[in-house]
Structures are given as C-alpha cells and as structure tokens.
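Pasting two entries for a bug report.
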Amino acid sequence: MKDNFLLIVVLISIAAIVFLIWLLKGRKYESSQSVASSYDSWTNDFLLEKLWGEHIHLGFYKTPYKLNDFKKAKVEFVHELVEWSGLNKLPKGSRILDVGCGIGGSSRILARDYGFDVLGISISPSQIKRATELTPRDVNCKFVVMDALDLKLSQGSFDGVWSVEAGPHMPDKQLFADEMLRVLRPGGLLAIADWNRRSVKGKPLSIFERFILNQLLNQWTHPEFSSINGFKNNLLNSPYFGGSVETSDWTKFTIHSWNDSIFEGFRRPGVFLKLGPNSLLKGLKEIPTIIMMRWAFAHGLMQFGVFKARG
C-alpha cells in the first residue's frame, strides 16, 4: 500500500513538472541571436543578478557538503578552476580572454586577484553593458560584444583563455575549440568548464533520457551538449592544438548549486518585493528546468566537465 502511494506521488510529480514545462514558452536555440536575446532578457530583468550575484555559473563546494552561501561558492569555483588549470602560474599582466563572460564576475576576479589583463566577450549586448557598469575603473577588464565562433582577434594573442558554461550554446563544438586555441599563444593555457551529457558509446540514451535532454536544450537555448570525451577530442583534433589536454568531472563539487539556486529565492524574498510580482513568476517558471538539471547531474545523464590544455 505504501509503495503504491509513493508511486502515485512520483507519477503525479512527474506529470506536474511535464505540464509546467509544456506551459512554458521554451527558449529553443534558433541562432546566435536567440542566445543573445535570452541573455539580454535575463540580464535586463536583474533577477539572476540579485539572487545569484555577479556569477551565473555554478558554485564549488568542498566535500563533505556544508550549507554555503551560493555567491561565495561561485567565487570559490573561480579560484579552484584557476588553480587546477595552472592559470595561477602565469605572471601578472598576462592577457586572458574570457569567452562567455556574462556580466563579468569571473573576469573581475581574474584581473583583481591575479593581476591579469582581461578581455571578456559575450554575444549579449546587455551583458556587456552591465559588465562594464559593474567594473571599477581600476580593475583591468574590458568587455566587448563578440561571437565565440568568429573571434575578431589575432592568432596567438592571448596567454590564457577562460570559458565557463558557454559551450552548450555553441552549435559547432569543433569551431568553438578551434577559435579558442587559435587565439591562444604557443604554450598558453586554456581553462574550460562546461555542462556535458554522458557518453552514449555502449549505452544509448533511453526514451526518458532523451526527453530530459530535449527539455534542457530547449528551455535554456542550447543547440546540443557534448560529452567530456567528445569535447576533449575537439581540442585534440584542432589544427591549432600543440600541447597537452586533461579533463576531470567536477559534478560532485558543483551539484549542490542546483539546490542553492532555488533556495536563494527563499533566502532573499526581498528581491521579489523590490523587482515586482512578475519577477516571482519568472523565478517559479525556472524551477522545473533546475529540478531536471539536478536530476540529470545526480543520475549521470549530465556531467560537469573541466578541461585544461596548452596551446
């Protein structure tokens, strides 16, 4: 009897989530302009900034997990990736390109805490405008609108390239890898962190997994997820690749971010009062996708891949 009741609860919950997602107007990827429009909207309504701070990416949590401030965990993530990738070994004044810079949170840390000369790029004009507004004059950052698949930058012009959670928006993963490596000087360092789907070799996706992935793609303007090994091969196969590449799965260090991304709404209810009732509706509409992301990472359908390479 108890098992039947639990099954009914699970089925009703799944049906409710599916119904909510159906009700939502998805943000299906159509072109780079659809990505720009989505991020323009997220930036201009200020909801993510007020709840999550200057970093849109996930946070890093030491194990065992302890309740942490989400914004602090995001800053910790930047420092962890800098150290893991070896960027901290570059001298002050090194030129760093931040691909998919958002509103500049990571760029400012790279410039302020490590003394780098940082150029942040985004496809979203609103993100670039806000990143510029948030950056003090004494912080060595510049932000410009630019397509990551068509970098208007000279070959070998950067000592380091940094990109966090931008890859899923790229329709051509090989070109994405090529462009980042092209602008990296010989011996320069590449640091990337991305949402990746699991490998399908030897274990094809089930119908349910395909449904979940389709929702994750369509709700947040993603054309496709690559696997960790798939993007590693993109780096290895690039004509500009000249060094080494290493990968790791940081899912266990970042998965608590999905819980906290929802909890922030309860911790900071004043945000909704300040931004108005429409902001609460927008926040509620994101919850089903966040729950699906949490499930996908917890069950191995998605993995948080980090990559470091030399040019």
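Entry 2 (this is the one that rendered wrong in the viewer):
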Amino acid sequence: MRITQSFLNNMVRINSDRASAAVVKTSAKLSALSAVEQPSDDPVVAQRLNQLNKFDSRLERLAGNRTRVETDLKTADGVLGSMHEMLVRAKELALSMNNDTLNAQDRANGAQEAEGLLNQMMSLVNQRYDGEKYLFTGRAENRPPQAAAGFQGDDGARFVEVGPGAKIEATLSGSTVFGSGNEVIKSLSDLIDALKGTPGNIGLGQTLDDLDFARQTVLLARTEVGSRLNQLSEIASVSDDVKTNIGLEKANLMGVDVAKLAPELTSAQTMLQTVVETSKQLMARVGHAWMS
C-alpha cells in the first residue's frame, strides 16, 4: 500500500490524540481526587483547605483574564501585520511613481491606489473588536482611534492582573501604533497629495523616508505586542505550576495517595513526548522519500 501524506497525517493525529488523552485523563484523576470535599475534625486543615480553594478560584479568574488579554493582543498583532503590508506596498508605489517619465494619468492611477490603501487602513484600525471596544486608543476604548481631524484616542494604559501579583498592559496607545504625530496615517496622506500634485505637498522623495519611518513604527508596535504575549505565556506557565502545587497540597491534606498517581502521570507525559518525536522523524523520512 502506498503511504500517502493524508494517511500519514491521520496516523500521526490519532497517535497524538491518544497520548494527549492519557495525560489529560491522569491529570483529571489527580484534580478530581484533590477536589473531593471531605469533612475534617481538624480546624487547621479545614482552614488551610478553605484558603487553597479560594486561591484556586482566584487562579481560575486570572486565567480568564489572561485569555481575554491574549485574544486582544493577538488581534492587535494581526491588524498591525496588515498595516505593515499596506505600508510596504505604499513604499513600492512611491518608488515606482518617483519617475520623471510618468505622465499625469500614471500619477492619477497611483494616487487612486494610495487612497485605497489609506481607506483600508482607516477601516481596519477603526473596526470595533469583540463587539465592544476599539484597539489602539489607550484607555479611550469606546471611540475609534482615527477621524478626519486625526487621532482621537489617548496614551493612557489599562493594566490587567493576569497572574498572582502580575499585571500586564492590555491596551496600546496611539503614539505606540501611529507615532507621536500620527505619522503612520500622515505618511499615506502625504503620498496621495504628492501624487496628485497638491499645492504645498512635500514631494515623493520625502514620502519615501516618511513611509519608512511609519513602517518602523508599526514594526516596533508589533515587537511590543510580541513581548507582552511572551510575558503572558511565562505567567501562564508559572500559574499552572502554582495550580498543580495547590492540587497536590489539597490532596495531601485530604489523605489522597498522590504517590500512586505520580508515576502514571509521568508515564503518560513521557508517552506523549515520544509520540511527538517519533511522528516528526517518521514524517521527515517519508517526506524525504517522497521528494526523492
């Protein structure tokens, strides 16, 4: 039988799903056992269990906060990526138009494309996300960032607690995304004016530098977003460790034999890791043979 890519993908997926299910099942056993409500005659133990349960609930709430902030930041990263692509295209357009051999119609066509890029960007940044808020307006999340008069947000920051004692900035200011002088939007407007020959325009040569500055501004904003997403990931890892330790302490207080489950959990995790590595090697070998 010829091993097709589809067959291989299905086999890898099935094996991975089985191994993942084993880890989840064993972890659930520990979680369920450690969550069992048992009456205790020891008031100290009872008090400690109550504290752990409250802290566990707080961790759940913080996990929800992380999810919401992560969603917003990933959305912002996607929008910034699209903005960067538009600015790259605008720079290409400016370079192609910076040519004395082009006639008035050529420049009019270029201006029309530049207007299209500006309209796309304005529509993108002024979109309401999650049905309730705008991105890139600082704390002014109830109004779109860009209007005919220019930027109308602020540079305020909203911080959200996403881990025990850990807060992260959940908003992006206008100066971070558009520049302190709204240069990202202005660079496209100036390009349009230069192509139309609007009196007082700065000229195509200057727009090239301005578009470069605008592109760098957006890239720096994406770097900032990426840094925050990495922080969220690290905080999530630490929070998961804390949650596991809470579960173990609760289980110990209630007399659950954690030692019996520990080897089972370790075995399941090892099996999952083995499946992942084996799948990678198998796909690499088959892929090499198929390409030969």
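Dev reply: Rendering is fixed now. As a check, the viewer should reflect this: Residues 33-37, 286-292 have pLDDT under 50 and may be disordered.
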